[in-house]
Write a structure and sequence with these properties.
Blueprint: H1 3-6, E1 11-16, E2 22-28, E3 35-39, H2 53-56, E4 61-65, H3 82-95, E5 101-107, H4 108-119, E6 124-132, H5 140-154, H6 163-173, H7 184-195, H8 197-211, E7 228-231, H9 240-249, E8 254-257, H10 266-269, H11 271-284
Parallel strand pairs: 3-4, 3-5, 5-6, 6-7, 7-8
Antiparallel strand pairs: 1-2, 2-4
Helix pairs in contact: 3-4, 5-8, 6-7
Length: about 290
Amino acid sequence: MSLWLDFLGVEIRYVKTRNFGTIRVAEAGAHNDHAIIFQHGINGHFEAYAKNLIPLSKHFHVIAFDYVGHGLSSKPDCEYTPMMLAEQLGELMDAMGIAKAHLSGESLGGWVSALFAVRWPERVDRLMLNTAGGLPIVTEKGRQDLKHFIELNKRNIDNVPSYESVQARLHWLMHPDNHHMVNDELINLRLGIYLQPASRAVLPRLNEILAHHDDYLIPLEKLPQGTLFLWTEDNPIHDMETVKAAHARVEGSLLYVMKGLAAHWPQYEQPEEFNAVATKFFTDGSVA
């Protein structure tokens, strides 16, 4: 299915923030009372949630956006950190008139969501960390996975990004059984973003976030009770041992492991299961 068909009924617009420039936003279900803000991973863009916005807009006001420095949002020449992106989230919420929202982020998006929830708990309803970054790594495999991910990203920085390098990055995101979902449209969309001069200039700064992963770890004991860790058995970074250790440190937290085959993008690889879990969790705080 084309991304345009996935987004049929979604409003795509640009929102001006005080200090972070213009942010590209996808929005649906604005008439609903409770908002969910979805946040993508490093070097990503809001199309990561193409298969979730319309289904979840039946019950929620759903929003996805491109972080500053990513996608088609502004790309200032500055230092990028997870906390800086959390500040951008707050400014976007202000600009959109959203005082409080549910947060769901994958990878970097989960990392930023968690830091935001710790710094501004009064602005967060429920928190879903979807294959999130920023967790203390507890295994040698986990450390090697992070090293491999940094090296993979460097292929699109040290060289001019190509169809093949972007395809390899997207294959890393998904379970091998889902590689058919890595089609020309998705590859060329990301390649087109990466090849923009503004993107080429900022990509090295974005990847510094990974190089300093342990400097911005999530303070797990400060996360809200009822936080949901949504994971996969085949997540290529932050393995099951790491998330189980994190789950044990967050009082009252939930851990849901996807039943369908998925790697780092469960919301895209298994959208029906993900949407069902998200609907249940953001409705009553449970997953069963």
